[in-house]
Structure formats: C-alpha cells, structure tokens
Amino acid sequence: MKTATGKRDWIHYYFKSTSGVIGLFLVLVMVVLSLISALNLAPIDPLEQNPIDALQGPSGNYWFGTDQFGRDIFSRSIDGMSRSLSVALLSVGIAATVGVFLGVVGGFFGGWLDNLVVRASDVIFAFPAILLALAIVNSLGNSWIDTSIAIAIVYTPIFIRVARGPVLTVKEMDYVKSVRVLGFSTPRILMRHVMPNVLAPIVVQIALSLSWAILTESGLSFLGLGTQPPDASLGLMVSEAQALASFAWWTLAFPSLFITVVVVGLNLVGDGLRDALDPARRSSG
Amino acid sequence: MGFLKRLASVLTTLFGISVFVFVVLRVIPGDTITSSLGIETGVLTPEQIDTLRAYYGIDKPLVGQYLSWMASFLSGDLGFSYSTGAPVWDLTRSALLVTMQLALFGTILGVLIGISIGMFSARKPGSARDFLGQFFGLLALAIPGFVLSTTIVTVTANKFQYFPNGYEYMTPFEDLSMNLQQMLFPSLVLGIAVAAPVMRTTRSALLETVDKDFVRTAYGKGVKPRIVRLRHVLRNSLIPIVTMTGIQFGYLLGGAVIVEKIFALPGMGRQILDAINKREYATVQSSIMVFAILFVTINLITDWVYRKVDPRIK
C-alpha cells in the first residue's frame, strides 16, 4: 500500500521478515522444479517403467527411489508438482478475477445485484470445500481444466467477501464521494480510487488460496477424482503408496514432503505479505 | 424481528443450496442407466431406454424432477439406493451418527490441542517456545489429512500391528471400547487440522487481551498469575476462538470424506463418495443436501454460542 515512505516500501519490509523469505524460497524451489518438468528436462521420463528397478530405495540413479512399476519417484514428484501448481494457478486466477469483480461491483452499487451476489456466495459457503469440489468434478470430468474450474467455483466466494468488505467502507469515504461529485466515470472511480484499497487483502488471499487449492487438488486426486493414472499427481502417488509404504517408505515420504513444503511456503508468503502490506500490523511484527 | 429475519435468510440459503445441488448433479454426463448397465446400454432399444428412464423418474422435465425430489425430501423420503434397494434415509441415519461422532471428537481434540498450544505460544511471544508452537501450527495447516492418515496407518498397522479399523465397524452401542479405538486415529487427524487455526486464533487473541487495562489491574491487585491467565485473559479471548471453532467444524465435515475413506468408517463422507462412484443420483443428492443442512445448522449454533459468550452482541 502507499505510505509516506513510498510505494516500494512493502517489498523492503517483506524481505526483512525471515519467515517471509524462507516461504518465498520454498515456493520458488517448487516452481523451478515444476518448470524443469514442464520443459521435459526431468532426469527420467515420469511415465517410463523399468520393472527390473521396481521399488528401489533412493540412490544416485533414482534420487527419490522408484515405485511398484520402477518409475522414478523424483521425476513423478516434480511432474505432479507442476500439475498441482498449474491447477492452483488457473483455479485461483479464475476465482480471484470473478470474485473480485463481483465483490467490487456488488459492494459499490449495492441493491439487488449485491443481494444476489451475497446470497449466491452464502450458498457455496454452505458446503465443505472438498465435498463441493468433488461433486462438481464428478459432473465436469477429470481433466486438469475441469479440476481447476471446480476449485475456482469453491473459492470464488472468499474473494467476493474479501473484495466487498473494503469497498463498502471506501465508497462512503469523502474522497470517493468527492470524485463522484466531480463527475468522474464509474469505471475510473472503481479502478483508480476503489481498487487500490482492495488490492492488499486480495494479494494476501491469493497466496493463501493457492495453498488451499493445492490441498484440494491433491485431495481430489487422492480420492481418484483428479488426475488419472498413469499421469503423475502428488495425491495419487500418496494414494498408491498406501499399499507400499510399509516396505517402501520413500513412495509415501517424498510426494507428501512436496505437498507439505509448497503449502508451508505459500502460507509463509501469505503471512509475510499480510504483515508487509498492512501498516497497522508492522509495529506488532 | 432479528430471529425471523435470520430464519428467513437461512431458508433462502437452503433453497439456493437445494437448487445448486440439483443443478450440479444433473449436469453429470451419462446417467443412472449407463452407469448401472455399462456398455450394455448400447444394445437397449429406444423403448427399453424410455421404460428405464420412466422407472428411475428421470424422464420428466427438470423442474418437475426438482419439485418431486423436494416434496419427498421434505416429507422425510430421501429415495432408494439403486444398487442395494435400501432407503437412503436408513443409510443416512447410521452414517450421520458416525460422522457426527467423528466430527465431535475431532473438534474436542482440536480445541484442546489448539488452545493449549496457543496459550503455550502466547506466554512469551518471540521466544523459542513461541517458535515451537507456531511451527506446529504451520505444519498442522500444511500436512494434508490424507498424508497424516496414511502415515499413521502405515506406522501403527505395520510397526505395531495395531489397526482397530481393520475390523468391522462397531457403533458405540454395540462395542464401546472397539468404537472408541476405531475413532481414535481418525478424530486425531481431524483434530490436528482443527488445532492449527484454533492455535493461531488463540495466540493472537491472547496477545491482544494481555495488553488490556483490566489485565494489568488484575495483576496489580494481586490475583494469582495462573488465575489471571485463565479467568481474565482466556475468557475474554474466547469470542474469536469460538467463532474459529464453529468455522472449523464445518471444514471438518469436509475432511471427514477423506478420513472416513482411509479408516473405513461408514459415515456420510464415504456414503457420498460411494454414491458418486456408482452415479446414484438420489443418494448423492439427498446426502449432500443433508450435509449442507447440517453445516448451516452448525453455523446457526455457532452464532448462538457467540451471542452467549459475548452479551454485547445483539
């Protein structure tokens, strides 16, 4: 947010927080690994089966060991990570765009439109996230785009709520009233005078929602409703590891570690952003 | 006035939920007939298909289907499970008990763990113990329930040969000791998920209250520190904690879907999951509806408790 010391102040503040920096580092590591996989630079093809090497422990050849078909768990983990991150980015992208638009427009204009938006989000809020995603994925299909749309629907109301709150306050402020009196166009008022005040909480919400989206995506594929075999997905790998983990711990440990690391990272980034973007919280550190 | 208004808004929400559930589940490509007969559907004559559609009641217009579903739902008839022929309500009743017991135990464990660690952390903000508490909170937030469950199952079943969930499920009335053992790990997994946000809320609420004048006064007039922490600080921090617990209870019902599957508990989550796999409209629709009603009810109760805890809220 804009403060007396300047626009870029929050970036400086963010990097002063150790946990924020650690979080950013963890997320970046996962992003780089995903890119390596997405660019087909993984050491071994994640789908390649080497039955002779089935269920080997971690070694120089297979860094994270192999699964029951002799597939490389490291390559499959980074492949799964890239799939999880794609779903998370697309779903949160949709949810944030639609949610912020509806929240800002509803909050600013009020009336029946606002009423409808709030009611609709109450309806979606009345379902536990994973259950709703499950029902929608079941209707739409199993592709990563279907999964993303399902997760987007689940998390849109949160963005509506986060955006709408500050708009209700801001629109009553004198400076917004005065630009209205000056006759500025509504889109201009919304973009130039209202949006900047909503941005900070939304940025924080994006980081947190990305972590929830990853948890929901991996939960869905764990239940068999997301990515389908033989494609790699972290949730699916954990699900398959249920039968293997007692004698091949690495089949469970590494995919689990990947999910946990990226979710921890995103949460730390979210907390760091919250502190950095909200001047009131800075003093409490 | 306030109550009536609230009731009206809850009813509107429930109506919206029922329409939403109906619409989402009707978009399903492929219907009950294809899923129960598989590829054999291809050899059916159009007349046979029409007869089957009429039998399942999916030949009528959508609005008619919705209305007849709602009418029977409201009269307590949730339909029949196509595969077993059992009334959905009978299945749901026993499944609800399992899920409610699980959710209740999970919440109790979660609140106990969460408040304890929150208090442990808030005693000395910025200290090593605070770091430890916050680290727990972060991990509990980040480790998915299915990872924790799978790990627990692997360790207890294989290293300690202890796996009560491998036996047939027992209700508390049949075999209380077995039931509690079967509930132990699943509710612990759910409890840890609840503990994370409860811990964070407790910590920040306590830190905020500690600075208040009345706390300083209490210390000043010589009240024992332990009493101040429990009677003055914790009690005045309860509102956000209660709210967070209510919200979490809802999420926990969602988490139950996964946990029930892993620990083989015949609850609502597993019922819905099975029904989804078998494409049983009636069961999925009615079960999700029951779930949503439960969720809305819990939010109402939270709201009520909230008012009880803080008389200032009108």
Cα separation of the termini of chain A: 17 Å
**Number of beta strands of chain A:** 0
The pLDDT mean of chain B sits at 82
- Strand/helix succession of chain B: HHHHHHHHHHHHH
The major pleated sheet of chain B works out as: none
Q: Which spans of chain A of ≥5 residues are poorly predicted at pLDDT below 50?
A: none
Rg measurement of chain A, Å:
22 Å
Helix/strand/pairing class of chain A, anyone? Answer: mainly alpha
Mean pLDDT of chain A: 87
Helix residue percentage of chain B: over 70%
Strand content of chain B: under 5%
| Overall 3D form of chain A | elongated
Description:
With 285 residues, chain A is mostly helical. In chain A, 72% of the residues lie in helices and 0% in strands. Chain A contains 11 helices and no strands. Chain A has helices spanning 9-15, 18-38, 73-109, 111-125, 129-140, 144-170, 174-181, 186-222, 234-241, 249-277, 279-282. Chain A is elongated. Chain A starts with 8 loop residues before the first helix and ends with a helix. The model of chain A has no long low-confidence stretch (mean pLDDT 87). The model of chain B has no long low-confidence stretch (mean pLDDT 82). Chain B is mainly α. Chain B contains 13 helices and no strands. The longest helix of chain B has 35 residues, at 88-122. Chain B starts with a helix and ends in a 5-residue tail after the last helix. Chains A and B meet through helix 4, helix 5, helix 8, helix 9 and helix 10 of A and helix 1, helix 6, helix 7, helix 11 and helix 12 of B.
Briefly characterize the structure.
The complex is a heterodimer of chains A (285) and B (314). Chain A is mostly helical. In chain A, 72% of the residues lie in helices and 0% in strands.
